[in-house]
Amino acid sequence: MSTPTLAHNVVHFVRLLRGAGLAMSPAHSVDALEALRWIDITRRDDVRAALAALLVHAPDERDLFHQAFDLFWRDPDWEGKLRALLLPKVTNGVPPPKRNNRLADALAARAAALKQENNQPDTVEHLHARITFSAQERLSHRDFDTLTSDEWRALRHQIRSHRMPLATEPTRRLKTASHGTHADLRASARSAVRSGGDWTTWKYKKVVERRPPLVLLLDISGSMSAYSRAVLYFCHALLQSRERLQVFLFGTRLTNATRALRERDPDVAIAAISDQVVDWSGGTRIGAALAEFNRRWARRVLNGRATVLFVTDGLDHEAIDVLETEMLRLRRFAHRLVWLNPLLRYADFTPRARGVRAILPHVDAMLAAHNLDSLNAVGRELAAVTRRSDRKSAGDTSWN
Question: What is the domain partition of the chain in residue ranges?
Answer without folding.
Answer: 1-120, 169-210, 214-396
